[in-house]
């Protein structure tokens, strides 16, 4: 091979490299914008695509330029740098250096804004772990909000990740409605104790970062669950890994069920049946009619008629008994029929009256109307609390006899044991023995394991009661 031909090949290689550099530079150039903000020209095609689809990181974050993490960043080692910051975050948490913990967590997310597990873990860490380190309920609520805000920020960076939107709803729902501090948190969610959120009228308002419309926490959770389902339907790129799909999609319906439960708790009986009707329709007609896929991608629908089971069996290429087994297994797994029956029961006037009686009984007890009165003639008039409790016990007992399958387990058992706990307390404070037989006695006797929880709930509900 001649020297000239070798030199020629090198020249052609050089020309080829130059030609290839032109489109690389053209496509990779930073995006251009006009004074009005509109993108122009063909430059910055890749930059625009990264920005539109949230595939790039525009900042290295607020990382200490002298730290070991920054040294790793400068070497292109974002992952190891984030790991170093994770260790620092744990150290700051153990040392209770909360400001440094928060700034370090922010730096981690700026280094890896599209790593979903960071948002999930640190959001959970702030809302559940860090919040428990504080004694005052106000301070705990602040850190719960920080965890929720952190997840909301994660959704901004990851618009195509449905699970993050679902997690926001789950955090709002569980922390405001299930945690030990739920009585305070639910109120704080609409009327924040932080002075920064006092309205122009001089009354506490919500933190608009977590509750922009000042709604009930369950309704805010509902909105986030709906967004999660919409993302899953349309542009979810990661899907719902780590959570069974049939549980993921029930978020909106469960949020409405929990919201409906709070109507009677607050004495809002005018809206009780209406909200339960809404929850029932969401459970049956929306969630129940969604298409899910079980083993071997066989389709099923939770709210299915016999005709629909036959049709889906044909589509799946299986027998009707096989389709029915697939359907029944998943219906049982999510307790679909149980929540269907509960929502249906709560829509009935008889349940509304039973809940009203118990609410009035609790109100009377906490207003010191739980003491018997002795007349001038020596006759004893039972207290208002006992009178309402006896009415409630008779109503609940009648419902239990009519719908025994609803009283095998679950919330209705807790309701009944709590009613009896109040009934026992009223007799105790009046120095009276319980009658040998009374309504709900069988449920109380058969659920001894629930007595401690009933007493705990009773003490929480009555700790601020009037004594005279």
Alpha plus pi helix count: 21
What separation lies between the terminal Cα atoms? 112 Å
Low-confidence stretches: 58-75
Query: So what's the overall shape?
Result: globular
Mean pLDDT: 86
Order of strands, widest sheet: 1-2
Main sheet summary: 2 strands, antiparallel
Tally of strands: 4
Report Rg. 30 Å
Q: Into which percent range does the helicity of residues fall? A: 55-70%
The number of distinct structural domains comes to 4
Explain what you see.
This protein has 468 residues and is mainly alpha-helical. It has 4 domains: 3-52, no CATH class; 75-243, no CATH class; 259-347, no CATH class; 371-462. 63% of the residues lie in helices and 2% in strands. Strands 1-2 form a two-stranded antiparallel ribbon. The chain has a two-stranded antiparallel sheet with strand order 3-4. A hairpin with a 5-residue loop joins β3 (373-374) and β4. α12 runs antiparallel to α13 (269-287). The chain is globular. The relative contact order is 0.04. The model is unreliable at 58-75 (pLDDT under 50).
């Amino acid at each position: 091979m001649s020297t000239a031909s070798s030199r020629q090949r090198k020249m052609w290689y050089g020309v080829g490299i130059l030609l290839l550099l032109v489109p690389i530079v053209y496509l990779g150039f930073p995006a251009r914008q006009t004074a009005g903000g509109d993108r122009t020209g063909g430059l910055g095609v890749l930059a625009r695509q990264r920005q539109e689809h949230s595939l790039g990181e525009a900042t290295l974050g607020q990382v200490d330029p002298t730290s070991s993490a920054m040294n790793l960043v400068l070497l292109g080692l974002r992952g190891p740098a984030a790991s170093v910051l994770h260790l620092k975050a744990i150290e700051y948490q153990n040392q209770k250096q909360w400001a440094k913990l928060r700034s370090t967590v922010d730096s981690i997310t700026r280094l890896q804004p599209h790593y979903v597990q960071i948002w999930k873990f640190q959001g959970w860490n702030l809302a559940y772990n860090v919040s428990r380190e504080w004694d005052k309920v106000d301070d705990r609520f602040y850190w719960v909000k920080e965890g929720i805000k952190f997840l909301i920020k994660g959704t901004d960076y990851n618009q195509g990740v449905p699970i993050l939107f679902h997690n926001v709803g789950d955090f709002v729902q569980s922390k405001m409605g299930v945690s030990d501090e739920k009585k305070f948190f639910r109120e704080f969610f609409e009327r924040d104790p932080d002075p920064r959120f006092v309205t122009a009228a001089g009354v506490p308002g919500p933190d608009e970062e977590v509750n922009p419309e000042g709604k009930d926490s369950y309704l805010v959770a509902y909105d986030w669950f709906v967004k999660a389902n919409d993302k899953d339907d349309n542009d979810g790129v990661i899907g719902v890994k780590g959570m069974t799909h049939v549980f993921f999609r029930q978020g909106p319906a469960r949020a409405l069920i929990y919201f409906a439960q709070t109507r009677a708790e607050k004495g809002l009986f005018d809206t009780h049946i209406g909200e339960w009707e809404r929850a029932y329709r969401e459970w049956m007609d929306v969630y129940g009619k969604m298409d899910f896929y079980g083993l071997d991608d066989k389709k099923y629908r939770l709210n299915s008629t016999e005709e629909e089971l036959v049709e889906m069996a044909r589509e799946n290429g299986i027998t009707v008994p096989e389709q029915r087994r697939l359907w029944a297994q998943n219906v049982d797994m999510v307790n679909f029929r149980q929540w269907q029956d509960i929502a249906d029961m709560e829509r009935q006037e008889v349940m509304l009256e039973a809940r009203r009686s118990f609410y009035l009984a609790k109100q009377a007890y906490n207003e010191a109307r739980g003491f018997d009165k002795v007349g001038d003639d020596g006759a004893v008039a039972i207290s208002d609390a006992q009178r309402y409790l006896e009415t409630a016990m008779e109503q609940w007992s009648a419902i239990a006899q009519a719908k025994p399958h609803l009283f095998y387990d679950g919330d209705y058992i807790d309701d009944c044991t709590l009613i009896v706990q109040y009934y026992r307390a009223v007799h105790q404070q009046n120095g009276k023995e319980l009658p040998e037989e009374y309504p709900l006695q069988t449920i109380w006797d058969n659920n001894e394991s629930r007595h401690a929880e009933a007493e705990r709930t009773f003490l929480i509900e009555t700790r601020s009661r009037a004594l005279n």
